Structure formats: structure tokens, C-alpha cells
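User:
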Amino acid sequence: MIKEDKESITFIEKIILWMFVMDLLIGKWIFNISENRYIYSIIIVYFIYMFITKKYNIEKSDLISITIIVVILYINILVNGKNGNFFSYGILFGVGNLLIIKFFIQLFQSNRRYMKEVFIVKLRKVFNGYFWINSIVMYKQLNGTYFLMRHYQNNPMYEDHITGFIGASGTHRLTLFWIALIVFNINYYLDSKRKATLLTVIIQLIYMIIMSAYNDNTIFYVLMPLILVEVYGIRLVKKIGIKKLFLVVVATIFFINTFNYLKTVNVEVDSFLSTRVSEKICQLANSEDENIDDEERIELLKYSLKYGNGYKFGVGIGSVSYSDSRLSRHFGMSEISIKTYEGGLIYLFELILLYSTYMYILICRRNSIRSKIILFIIVFFNILMMASYTQIFRIPQLIEGMVLIAIGIDMGERKLV
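Assistant: Predicted structure:
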């Protein structure tokens, strides 16, 4: 291990660290390419250098994970044969994003003080400045103006591109950035007790609620409250007092009243919540009800199970592509359909388990076995949900967003209890 020093992080590590941040904030807007192979190559070279210089030792978790990955891929080849895109879809669009999580794990283990006292402090300021600038751009993008939009030609749905500098079809990436920002700001408020920060959080949340109705960002209304409850609600329950209970009740009442007020004064928000959001909730909650149409992602999963040998070993990794024209419309819009089609439910489950394990290692600082189990279940559920709704294994920016949220959660671990 490297000595835990506030300034011990190397120049190369700083470059890689901020490369991830910039990739999330402006990467797709600038380049709009599949940059997986370049990102993974940089990380692999970094770990090789760290290993040669004896600043990093291969851990048991790495060996176990590599073994699992090799076994899964080998079994799939034995059953289905090797397809032309096997490497791309098995590595680049399968397990590759684990390298990003591993890089952050390494930095936290060796430079936790720097990450906590320098990086997070700077990152919160960058995120807040970016938010206000990006919010202005998003506002200008309303009503079909195409203001500063780039690379949107492949997706005819204009609302998906109202994301500012996040880039085309970026509502999922935008949501993760927003959640990370709110977590950072709440942690800072709990630490500093600055009323200006609390007011900032309220204003930002109001903006996010309204804008998510205009850019068809349904996942925001699910993911934002879910993660905030996971991060802060559970901890408040542990050591709740009369004062904290009163503050929670007041905050809840204020949020509900504000939310209802926004629905009243903004027809777009009210209409979106009453149709798109409520429809998806009903679809997911009543997936077995024949009178209610399946949510599209669930419908595509059922398609993969029925026609892609999904209950067994799929039809082969790399045999189909995201948005494959030979299959149903929007096929691969989430990982659960394409990974099930490629390698069956076993392949999908193992990927979710691997990503959950690495994300758990990144943020777990607990001693209690019970707390560790609860944390892993929460992490597993979140990865499962992201795999059900997004292309989390394929798109590096989604993992970058999830990692930054996890860092924010970890940094705020002791602020409420």
C-alpha cells in the first residue's frame, strides 16, 4: 500500500481521475464515440505500472473475479461457439467497466485522505458550477431550438437530447450527475450547516423535477428519491431523536407541498407525472396483469427469454448488437434484454453480481456483519435496477456516475450518526 498522504496521489492518477469526471460531464457531447477500449487500455497500463513498481498487489477478489469471468465466457463459447463480436461484447461491453470501479477502489485504499479532503472538495465546486451553466443551456434547448446540441441524428426523439453538455440521448447520465451533485451538497450542508447550501439543494431539486418532465426523464423520479432514502433515511432511523424526527417530518411535508405546488402551476410536470411516470410504475408493479401492457424493457426481457434461449445459456455472446435491426424495436435499450439473449439469465446474474461486489468493496467501511449484508443487498438492488433500465455495462459514463454517487455516500457515512 502507498502511504496515506494528503498529497500522495501521483500526477498520472490525477489525470485519470479528472478524465473520468470530464468524460461524464462533456465526453459524449464532444466526441460521441465508443471510447471503451481507450479508457480500459489506460487503466490496464496504469495497473501494470503499479504492479511492476510494487505499489499494487493483486488481491484475492481480483483473482476470483477473473476466474469467474473466464469460466463464464468459456462456457458460453463451448455451448454457442465464438461469434465475431465476442471480444467487443464480452469484454468491452460486458466486464470492462469493472476496471473503472477497480481504479477508484485502488485510489481509496491508498489515498483515502486525498480523495476525501481534496478531490471531493474540488469536485463539489466543479459540479455546482457546471450545474448552473448546464441548466441555462438546457433551458435554451427547450421548444425544439437545438441550442448547442451535437450528435443527435441517430435518435429522432428530441426530448432525449435536452441534457446540455451531457450530450445526446443523455438523460440517464444526466440523472446520475444530478444525484451525485445533490448527495455532495447534502453532505456539505450536514457538515457546515450553511443555510445557503440547503437553499441551493432545494432550488436544484425543484429545477430537476421540472426539467425531468420536459426531457422525458422518468428514471429521475424513481432513482433520485430511492438513493436519497437509501443514503440518509436508513441512517436517520438508526439514531433518531425528537429533534431529528421533527426535522425529517418538516422536510418531508415541505417537499410534498412543494411537489404538489409544482404540479399545480406547471401543466407539463402534472401531465408527465400523471401519464408517463404513473404508467411505468403501474406497468412494473403489475407485470403479470394481462390488462396492463408490459413496460417496454420488461417486454424485451420476455422476448429474450422466449426467443434467445434466455433460461439457459443464450444464443452466444456477440451474436446480437444493441438496437439490432433484426430484433424487436429498441432491443438492447437496457442490459437485461441483450445480456439475457447473449448468455441467458446466468450470464446476466453473474455480471450484476460482479459489479455489485466491486461497488460494495468501494464503499464498505462497516464492521458489523449485519450492516455489510444490508449494504450489499442495497448495492445489488441498485445495480439490478440500473441494468434493467440502462446500458450500465456498456457505457462508461454510467459507471462513472454510479462511482461518484458511491463516493459521495461514503464521504457522508458519519455525518448523520
